[in-house]
Amino acid sequence: MITLTPPAIRLPPPTQHWALLDLHAVDKALEDFATLPCPARPTPNSLSRWFDIFSNHLTSLLTSLAPSKRACPHSKPWWSPRLSSLRREYHKFARISHLDLSPLNWSNVKSSRRTYFKAIAAAKRTHWSDFLSSATPRSVWTAKRFAFGALPQRIPDLPGASDPAEVPETLLDHFFPSKPPPPPLLRLTLYEDYTPLTSEEISRALSTSSNTSAPGPDHIPYSVWKSVHRIKPSLLPSLLDPLLAHGFHPPSLKKALGIVLDKPGKLS
């Protein structure tokens, strides 16, 4: 007897469903959230450590309040409860026909199968028509991908990169080779003519950011940061003001996410 094991389906990791974020819970959680004062005479290490502690605390708080979701590999945006009921009916008649292959049962199987697949085709056509009718300049590339299909996953021919996870580091090492670190500063000086950062400036900066833009390494979209700033306008200035006052850019803000869109040529 030969037993065949079906291939294991590798589900994507769960992510946060930011559209279902409970803003009332965020409002209550941010009431008790406060940043401790910046060190009086900070060094680069102490200021970076102070910023990382409170920024990580804030991002962890928002992530814990957002419900998680896991995309199913078989989920489709055009699926409906009616299709689920038609599928159950089709499989019910198919199971009955395996036990009793009578003309009546076989007729029920063919009829339910025809109705089920016709409903799927109609749902696909309706979803595609609705998508095209509401298409915007931002979604034109999504429509093209749906029409022509997605390209197969390809790995750029880069030396030292054998899988997609190694591609970003290889590109960074090639185009931005590491340099010896500069001598550390003992103390950071406070700019005397520095103007404190206001919540209005952050509001203007966030208003120019698109809610559909790809998030950064914290995986929190701009729509959530806009809500956080609207709920507690003093939070982000208290977190960013010491950095600007001392002219310091922490290493945690220098991280970025990169995506290779097509297969480039070999690096020389």
Written description of the protein model:
With 268 residues, the chain is mainly α. The protein has a domain at 81-148. It is 49% helix and 1% strand. The chain is built from 9 helices and 2 strands, in the order βααβααααααα. A two-stranded antiparallel ribbon has the order 1-2. Helix 2 packs antiparallel against helix 9 and helix 3 (81-99) runs antiparallel to helix 4. The protein is elongated, with a radius of gyration of 27 Å.
Q: What's the number of extended β-strand segments?
A: 2
Helix content, binned percent? 40-55%
Radius of gyration over all CA atoms, rounded:
27 Å
Question: What is the beta-strand fraction?
Answer: under 5%
Overall pLDDT, averaged? 83
Quick one: overall form? elongated
Discrete helix count: 9
Structural class: mainly alpha
Spatial order of strands in the largest sheet: 1-2
Ranges where pLDDT stays below 50 over 5 or more residues in a row are: 264-268
Major sheet summary line: 2 strands, antiparallel
Distance between the termini: 55 Å
- The helix/strand series, from N terminus to C terminus, equals EHHEHHHHHHH
In short:
The chain is mainly alpha-helical. The chain is 49% helix and 1% strand. It starts with 14 loop residues before the first strand and ends in a 22-residue tail after the last helix.
